[in-house]
Amino acid sequence: MYQALYRKYRPQTLDEVAGQKVITKTITNEIIHHKLSHAYLFAGPRGTGKTSIAKIIAKIINCEHPDGITPCDKCVNCTQFNQKQSTDIIEIDAASNNGVDEIRELKSKVSLVPTTGKYKIYIIDEVHMLTVGAFNALLKTLEEPPAHIIFILATTDPHKIPNTILSRCQRFDFEKISDDDLVERLKYIVKEEKIDIEEDSLYEIARLSDGGMRDSISMLDQAISYVDEGVSITPKEIHEMNGTLSQEQLTEFMKSLVERNLEKVFILIDQYNHTGKNIIKLTEEVILYLRNLMLFLEVPNYFKQNNYKDEIYKNIAQEINIKDVLAIINELNYSLVDMKNASSPKIILEMTLIKILSKNINNETVTKSEEKLNIDNKKEKANSYVENVISTSKKTSISIEVKSPPVKKNEKLEEKTLDTNVINIEMKEKLKKVKRIRIDNALSNLEKRIVLSIRHSENEIRSKILDPEFNQVASMVLDGEIKAAGNGYLVYVYPDENSSDLFNENLILIEKLFENVFHKTYHLISTYQDDWDIIKNEFNNKLKKYQYTEENYKLDNILQSDTSEKKDQMKELFGDIVEYE
Predict the structure, then answer these.
(1) Residues 6+ away with beta carbon under 8 Å from 465
(2) Residues 322, 328, 332: CA angle, nearest 5 degrees
(3) Edge-to-edge order in the sheet of strand 481-486
(4) Mean pLDDT for each 10-residue chunk of the chain (581 residues)?
(5) What is the C-alpha to C-alpha distance for residues 467 and 473, in angstroms, rounded to an integer?
(6) What is the DSSP code (8-state) at residue 149?
(7) Segments in 342-408 forming alpha helices (H)
(8) What is the C-alpha to C-alpha distance for residues 566 and 572, in angstroms, rounded to an integer?
(9) Taking a C-beta distance cutoff of 8 angstroms, is the pair 266, 253 a contact?
(10) Which residues contact 519 (CB under 8 A, 6 or more apart)?
(11) Which residues neighbour 485 within 8 Å (Cβ) at sequence distance 6 or greater?
């Protein structure tokens, strides 16, 4: 029976593991100096060697005559391991054995001594899939297992594991494997299997596998089956097989886009769709091409150091500027989110391209990425205007009436800046209290149907982007994700704290938007991902009791007082010279 290449060429020793030098070095020293931990956590992307290293550790420490970190491959334990008959190495798939009963059964067996080896090793794959009850059942055993037991937990989502489990393990974070390391391993396999393949094809496989060794070897295996016997595997076959575009096709597509040839762009998309190209992958490829084009235009030295082929980008670079490149990247990035949730990604891509091409890219139409830039430009122009007026007054006999003496002007400015900072700090502290109350109120009576209802109504919020009153906050809401709802409260989560703070500072207008869309009053609040992970862990493990609390404050007093105070200060400093919103 044919054996898949990724199984046939699974690393058998720590020296064969690619791309994880820090981890293999640490584990090597622990084995040599007999300082093994009782529990390990291997976390990282798929196909980066977590389970392979776990099995290698199990084989080495149970070998009767190891040569340092190299097992002898002759003793009973090595023979049983190679034939997959070892009773002392237990692999558990947490995805299908994730209940309390399975963990209790495991606990009842850990007291049994090893059959032939020195240790019993439990390898629990995808451990984040265990239920809360199963984690609780595992806690004590994981903290103080018998001397002959070693646990190795593997996961692709470490943030889903309770801190009580994490703190009991020695953690190793696996990295994505570099393209060079992937290609080096693929070359070894190609040589052993006598496969005719171009080197460029290996680099395309490495790039498309996104740092996963298993993915790259599986892709090579698939390419061998795709081409006829005796035919060399070229990059063209790799792209045909994966539904992606070759560099030549990408260049042709980008040339049509830059020339604003909408008809040609749509013909090409139809061709790609009919030949089975994946529209989402296609969009990601276009974004990557534009990213490389951006590097070619702005940081040519970095571009050359990373061995990119500049001949691919030279012609396009002459017909487009960096501002256009950034604008297109942003528009396509926004559309990717919609594509992944849409029944027809092709339509979303076509709509986005029409939007891009119908704009006069030379800044006549404002894109989402340019909104903040325009606001900053307005501020700069206002400051520049003040400087010009003052400068002109020095050169001519025109006099400007200033309320405060010129000598003390800088001192007064410093005082006002300090006052504004104090106001900002006070507002943020008040908003923190609002956040605590509102999140507690939502979690005290969760209503999942409301969360689902809001998610399904995102298109109605999206339609408000064209409304002058709500366009900025509508875009802001769509950048976040609703995570909880209850008692009329909605909790949104953002990747970073700054985005969350910006949401909370615009709560009044956002709540008005929701009332306009849903014809119902909601109280909203947001937090950022790291904070939400802590809250979710406390909620899931029942570490905190959530109770409803009546709000005894007025939101407009907290938010609007800060705005009016700043305006008064600006007027006192500059009179009527500066316009502000």
Answers:
(1) 471, 474, 475, 478
(2) 145
(3) 481-486, 489-494, 523-528
(4) 83 86 91 89 89 90 86 87 85 79 80 84 88 83 84 89 88 89 90 87 86 89 84 84 80 84 86 82 86 83 67 76 85 84 84 77 42 48 47 40 42 41 65 88 88 86 82 86 92 90 89 90 92 87 83 77 46 45 42
(5) 10
(6) E
(7) 345-358, 368-395
(8) 10
(9) no
(10) none
(11) 442, 446, 447, 448, 450, 451, 454, 491
Structural contact between residues 330 and 371, judged by C-beta atoms closer than 8 angstroms: no
Which parts of 52-145 are beta strand (E)?
89-93, 120-125
Task: In whole angstroms, give the CA distance from residue 505 to residue 507.
Answer: 6
How high is the pLDDT of residue 363? 42
Residue pair 518/457 in contact (Cβ under 8 Å)? The answer is yes
Place of tokens 């040589």: 191
Cα–Cα distance between 44 and 287 in angstroms, integer?
A: 25
> Is the separation of the CB atoms in 144 and 117 below 8 Å?
no
The pLDDT of residue 406 is 46
Structural domains of the chain, with CATH: 5-173 (3.40.50.300), 179-242 (1.10.8.60), 247-358 (1.20.272.10), 369-418 (no CATH), 420-565 (3.30.300.180)
> Strand 481-486 vs strand 489-494: parallel, antiparallel, or unpaired?
antiparallel
SS3 for 520-562, per residue? Answer: CCCEEEEEEHHHHHHHHHHHHCCCCCCCCCCCCCCHHHHHHHH
What's the confidence (pLDDT) of residue 306? Answer: 62
What kind and span of H or E run contains 283? helix 279-298
Burial (0-12, 13-18, 19+ Cβ within 10 Å), 225:
exposed
CA distance 230 to 196: 8
Q: How high is the pLDDT of residue 415?
A: 41
Q: Do 484 and 443 form a contact (C-beta atoms < 8 A)?
A: yes
Closest CA to 161 of 544, 541, 543, 542: 541
Query: Roughly what angle, to the nearest 10 degrees, separates helices 213-226 and 199-208?
Result: 130
Helix runs in 20-115, H state only:
21-32, 50-62, 76-82, 100-109
d(CA 214, CA 189): 13
Q: Confirm if 504 and 435 have CB atoms less than 8 A apart.
A: yes
pLDDT of residue 3: 81
- DSSP class per residue in 179-195: HHHHHHHHHHHHHHHT-
What is the Cα–Cα distance from 487 to 533, expressed in whole angstroms? 22
Q: Is residue 365 helix, strand or coil?
A: coil
Task: Write out the two tokens for 250.
Answer: 């990408």
Largest CA distance in the chain: 101
Alpha carbon distance 501, 476 (integer Å): 11
Please name the amino acid found at residue 476: M
CA distance 388 to 91: 74
User: For the purposes of burial, counting CB atoms within 10 Å of the CB of 282, is it exposed (0-12), middle (13-18) or buried (19 or more)?
Assistant: buried
Residue with tokens 């061709």: 271
Give residue 65's Cα distance to chain centre.
45
Report how far residue 193's alpha carbon sits from residue 187's, in angstroms, rounded to the nearest whole number. 10
Contact yes or no for 475/510 (Cβ under 8 A): no
> Which amino acid, residue 563?
T
